[in-house]
Amino acid sequence: MASGAKSGRRSVTAKACLAAGALWASATNAQGTAAPHLFPEKWIDGTQAQEPVTQVQALDGDTFVIRQSVKTNFEAPFLYLLFGRDKALLLDTGAEGGVIRPTIDRLVTEWLAAHRRADIPLIVAHSHAHGDHIAGDAAFRERPGTTVVGLKPADVAGFFGIGKWPEEVGRFDLGGRTLSIIPTPGHQAAAIMIYDSRLKILLSGDTLYPGRLYVPVNFMADDRASIDRLAAFATRHPIRAALGAHIEMTRTPGRDYEREAPMHPDEHPLELPAASIAELQAGLKAPLDVPGQPQVHDHFIIYPVPPRPE
């Protein structure tokens, strides 16, 4: 069930224990070809007459994955909320039509209660600067104790202390939980991925997810370089799964949904295995210089699009 329904009223701790069991019970090699099953509940997919505006599933007591309903916006993006001892990080604020802040406020309130805390600073960052990932920013700019990171590469590099963008990997400490901030320009100039060494998950935004990986042809070289750096990073860091920002593929290999589909029956899992990084790297070696001529893989589609300004 989705948050807002019966399961949405469970305590954060109960949800987290349930999800954590699923996470660690999946004994898959971290760099293997099969992604583990991380989520005990089926994601909301628009196939029911009524569904809540968001759904939350926990990976552990400090890590929450939020999906915006496709009924509010066809993009149905995924957002990520991670807690450390000293601060929390929200990755993305959703698409137009979303009502994201009340869900985040509830999760923060429940986390604080569980830890007998009065407050915790919240950092709002973005996987990249496209509208379907920043539409909720305004609601967080007015939130007390909250910092919203800017949308330009220089803003992102400056906030996360990345001295040489995009070659350098930044480190951001939430307090006993240090994240790797990996610049991945290509899909968009300010794109990043975030690696969490605690859970060995890679938050991969729109650069790698089960769907159409749109790359403007004028930024194809940037995308190739980003994925080459990511592949090198993956050889040094175990990755249990890549978790992206959308699902646009069905469970049928190579088959996606029509653009702006109002529902996603038989949806592909959100999780992609670490081996997808090498597959994407190999696929990007093709010319891919003609917009609208995609390269179809079982779990994603590399999709060249016309030039964009950024």
Q: What does this molecule look like?
A:
The protein is an alpha/beta fold. The protein has a single domain (6-305), classed as 4-Layer Sandwich (Metallo-beta-lactamase, Chain A), CATH 3.60.15. Helices cover 23% and strands 22% of the residues. The protein has helices spanning 12-25, 101-114, 131-134, 137-141, 153-160, 220-236, 275-283; strands spanning 54-60, 63-68, 78-83, 88-91, 122-125, 146-148, 170-173, 178-183, 192-196, 201-205, 212-216, 241-244, 271-272, 295-296, 301-305. A 6-stranded mixed sheet has the order 1-2-3-4-5-6. A hairpin with a 2-residue loop joins strand 1 and strand 2 (63-68). Helix 6 (220-236) packs antiparallel against helix 7 (275-283). It starts with 11 loop residues before the first helix and ends in a 5-residue tail after the last strand. The relative contact order is 0.13.
Question: What's a concise summary of this model?
Answer:
The protein is an alpha/beta fold and 310 residues long. It contains 7 helices and 15 strands.
